[in-house]
Write a structure and sequence with these properties.
The chain is about 75% helix and about 0% strand. With about 150 residues, the chain is mainly alpha-helical. It is globular and about 45 Å long. The N and C termini lie far apart (about 55 Å). About 20% of the residues are buried. The structure holds fe (ii) ion. Fe (ii) ion (FE2) binds near residues 59 and 63. Fe (ii) ion binds next to helix 2 and helix 4.
């Protein structure tokens, strides 16, 4: 089955750790799509949507932590946008759970836009700033912990 969202380099923000989290979000969206197209039990759909909502909260918390560590000047605006995106996915989850609205292709396309717009539109704004202030593009446990370490203890 063709994926709803195909990962490609255009979606990369140039920071491996963030890209890995975005790929998890893309995979969850594709799983949701597959379940819906196959007509899987609605409970299963609801579980994947719940996982998507939970992982979104985790991912945004990571991005917001990085923004605070690096004193990103557009922190407030980006955080506000995160809150709106979180509300949207949680509202969707509630609707599916209450049976108020059958999840449809329309909803999936909304989520695809939700995800790609977030990555392409918003996240690429912080990338040059983080890299300029010392975040490493390659995955490394010390890439940003190192910055905290240097600021606090040295
Ligand atoms: Fe993101």
């Amino acid at each position: 089955m063709k994926n709803l969202v195909e990962w490609n380099d255009d979606l990369s923000v140039g920071i491996e750790e963030i890209d890995e989290q975005h790929k998890i979000l893309v995979n969850l969206l594709n799983r949701l799509h597959e379940n819906i197209v196959k007509g899987t039990d609605l409970n299963e759909v609801s579980l994947v949507l719940k996982e998507l909502a939970q992982y979104t909260v985790i991912h945004f918390a990571v991005e917001e932590s990085l923004m605070r560590i690096f004193d990103f000047p557009e922190y407030e605006a980006h955080k506000k946008h995160h809150e709106e995106l979180t509300v949207q996915v949680i509202e969707l989850q509630k609707k599916v759970d209450s049976g108020e609205k059958a999840i449809s292709m329309e909803v999936l396309h909304f989520l695809r836009h939700w995800l790609t717009y977030h990555i392409l539109g918003d996240d690429k704004k912080y990338t040059p700033f983080f890299l300029k202030h010392g975040l490493k593009s390659q995955w490394s446990q010390r890439s940003w912990m190192g910055k905290i370490w240097n600021n606090v203890f040295h």
